[in-house]
Amino acid sequence: MTRENEYAAETGIYRLIRDELEAGAFGRDMRTRFPPEPNGYLHIGNAYAIHTNYTVAQTFNGTFHLRFDDTNPLKENAEYANAIIEDLHWLGYDPGGHIYYGSDYSEQICRAAVFLIERGKAYVCDLGPEELAEYRGTLTEPGRESPYRNRSVEENLELFAGMKQGAYPASSKILRAKIDMGSPNINLRDPVLYRIIDAEHYRTGRQWNIYPMYDFAHPIQDAIEGITYSLCSIEFKDHRPLYEWVLNELQIPEPPRQREFGRLSLTGVVTSKRFLRQLVEGGYVEGWDDPRLPTLRGFRRRGFTPDSIRGFLEEIGTIRTRSTVDIALLDHCLRQDLKRKAMSVMAVLRPLKVVITNYPEGGSELVRIENNAENEELGKRDVPFSGTIYIERDDFMEHPVPGFHRLSPNAEVRLKGAYFIKCEEAVKDPATGDITELRCTYDPQTKSGTGFTGRKVKGTIHWVSAENGVKADIHLYEKLLLEGDIPQDGSWSDTINPDSLIVVGGALLEPSVQQAGPEQRFQFFRHGYFAADSVRTVGERLSFNRIVPLKDSWNKK
């Protein structure tokens, strides 16, 4: 692509940044940052923000920072911070040595607050939370000035020093910016800069009694690190004037610039951390790594690959507004990633016993089966075959309907990689009438790979040798949520899809999966893509999660 065509292809935030950089906006290298609060686990919406900041930095030969917004000791802990670092590396967006903590800048942020007080741009306010909300006004009515707004600089400095020293109880005083209570932008109505919190911080312990608000700490942290672009989602657009006010009042040269991109949502899932916490803490799901959740931990445990998630993020491109993307696109990217990578194996989820009556008694043999029909480079493997096997119960129909080309009385099918078999008899439970066993014969001349060119059959079914089959539990996943509004009261019982998880016990898999490692991925012939569950697999009892079925609904749209 020529430079001109490349430029013409850019849209949105990339075009804007290129224009500003080429106009000489900064005398330093490009730097972006992802600033998560360590109070939960990353989800797919966070991954989009990470992707945007990382790829913008890469596009303009810049540096990408991970910086924790750890300025609220009531919600944050080291577990979340460590998990975020691990997830970021797993996803493939490595910040290298550029991992920072907002709490390391506490002294600089506090000095910035003192500087604003000295310039008459900040004051200590005694209004309580309810009074503060009342004085703030509404979207249609202006706010009212606090009765403490006109305290002298000296009094404010003394009171703020007392806040810092722990002289006042939590929530009794706050530091506010002095901007404009009549502003149509409610974020500029003397916003809170600092509050008193009586809690131990996971990194600084009891060193601090006051903690800055995100809107105050964020631009200062960006300035300290030399960030050029603070790229954030669209809901922060109304916060941009406050971001710029802070940097301007602190007289920061070549201040960072906040620019916004769209917010990503997926159909059938919630990406609000508040709602995710309700699902986890309410016991509606197993935890933050439940494979039904859109957390990166959940996607990873279910079996999604980092490449498939990055491919999905690249496919949707730059979003300018709040956008909901069909989750079928994510599934499509997963299939595209795995179709030439995953080993295809035979798994019988609901077994039906088949006895091949004319097979040599006690005999067995190995048959050769390709590991991946899409990729010959993955080679072939030997699979044990014997006179007693199991097939899928759905692969037999006593009274076949038109178009059914699998096994039925007096009909022939090919066993994948093995022989033609013909059903001679269906054995039933005399009490229930259920079919418990099929008795079949095989044609030894029809073995796959021997050059047999005789009669043809329309159906091929998979199987597992009774002697060598490996037992496993299979977890089949569908969308977690039913269609409808998200409950605002935290009660999710009527919103959870009762079929979001179906556990199939007693499945039989071919022995090649016996040594499957955690998160190792396979294609189960005709069933979809599956991954070994990193949590449920205990000892020799295997457990697999279906990542996605084989049918690709995205291609049908």
TrEMBL record:
InterPro entries: aa-tRNA-synth_I_CS, Gln-tRNA-synth, Gln/Glu-tRNA_Ligase, Glu/Gln-tRNA-synth, Glu/Gln-tRNA-synth_Ib_cat-dom, Glu/Gln-tRNA-synth_Ib_codon-bd, Rbsml_bL25/Gln-tRNA_synth_N, Ribosomal_bL25/Gln-tRNA_synth
Domain Glutamyl/glutaminyl-tRNA synthetase class Ib anti-codon binding: 345-443
ATP-binding keyword on record: yes
Glutamyl/glutaminyl-tRNA synthetase class Ib catalytic domain mapped to chain residues: 30-338
E.C. numbers: 6.1.1.18
Pfam families: tRNA-synt_1c, tRNA-synt_1c_C, tRNA-synt_1c_C2
Catalytic activity: tRNA(Gln) + L-glutamine + ATP = L-glutaminyl-tRNA(Gln) + AMP + diphosphate
UniProt keyword Transmembrane present: no
Source organism, top-level taxon: Bacteria
Keywords, comma-separated and alphabetical: Aminoacyl-tRNA synthetase, ATP-binding, Cytoplasm, Ligase, Nucleotide-binding, Protein biosynthesis
Sequence intervals crossing the membrane: none
Gene3D superfamilies: HUPs, Ribosomal Protein L25, Chain P
Example of a GO MF term: ligase activity
Domain spans labelled tRNA synthetases class I (E and Q) anti-codon binding: 460-533
Enzyme superclass (EC): ligase
Family of the protein in this entry: Belongs to the class-I aminoacyl-tRNA synthetase family.
PANTHER family linked to this entry: GLUTAMATE--TRNA LIGASE, GLUTAMINE-TRNA LIGASE
The protein's name in its UniProt record: Glutamine--tRNA ligase
